[in-house]
Amino acid sequence: MHTRELTALVAELRQEFQVSIKLVLKVVKIPRSTYYYAQTHSGRVFDDDQLIQAIDEIRQQDPKYTKKYGYRRLTNALGELGFKVNHKRVLRIMHDHDWLCQAFNRQKRKYNSYQGTVGKISPNRLNRRFMTDRPYQKLVADVSEFRYGSMSQSERVYLEPILDLFSGEVLAFNISNHPTVEFAVKPLKEALDRLPKLKYRTTVHTDQGFQYQHYNWQQTLKNHRVFQSMSRKATCLDNAVVESFFHIMKAEVMDEHFEDQASLVQAMTNWIDFYNQRRIKIKLNGKSPVQYRKLAVQKAA
């Protein structure tokens, strides 16, 4: 029942039967708090037009990706534009306009690079402590596959990103037809070579994939005086952040079919640039990973 209907009903019953508000509310089984709230807000008009327009503009910024924003992220984006709005109101509007994204409900295929103990297994230094208050202190990496071509004869490419747990920023990445050791080491070297001088040592965490047990990977870490950390066997939660990254990326990129490798690789590259530069994150106070890192560096300077 709307606020005006509620207050009108109580007033009509009081006038007809000449009884107190307390008795009327008891008969119609309406809590006193509900009635007084309705009376206070009886003249309030909820005009959603400006809000709908703002939400639509946000969704059109990067249409392929921002149309997949959920109501929490949209609420945050609206706050950056000066709107003071409750997330429930945003959810209602999105539901009314059929703007709710279903891409994240689909299960995605997972790539497993574990081939047994083929090299040295490092201790789990990270131990699921994913939070850090400084950039470049904790980095994570993993490999996942992306498919293209026909259903009967699908091909695949492999992606390895190096993520900074401070902001989730992709510091470097590589895409290749084969998940070789050289493929994995290339973005690691790029990321470590770009690190500024730090007062603390960096830790790079991975699973126990054969690439990460290899001498070349481990020697690259030693050359940069970086600690190595590994998940325990068959424990994907030990590297949950990068697993979550792959889930988000596949939901937002693989919602369409790619016939050839070039178009898939281009879509993957474009999305990573969007993710770093423009995709806002709630836990980063509505900032993208790069924006958040730059603000942190400015404050520390």
TrEMBL record:
PROSITE patterns: INTEGRASE. SUPFAM superfamilies: Ribonuclease H-like. Pfam families: HTH_21 (PF13276), rve (PF00665), rve_2 (PF13333). Residues 131-297 form the Integrase catalytic domain. Signal peptide: none annotated. NCBIfam families: transpos_IS3. PANTHER family: INTEGRASE PROTEIN (PTHR46889:SF5), TRANSPOSASE INSF FOR INSERTION SEQUENCE IS3B-RELATED (PTHR46889). Involved in the transposition of the insertion sequence. This is IS3 family transposase. It comes from Furfurilactobacillus milii.
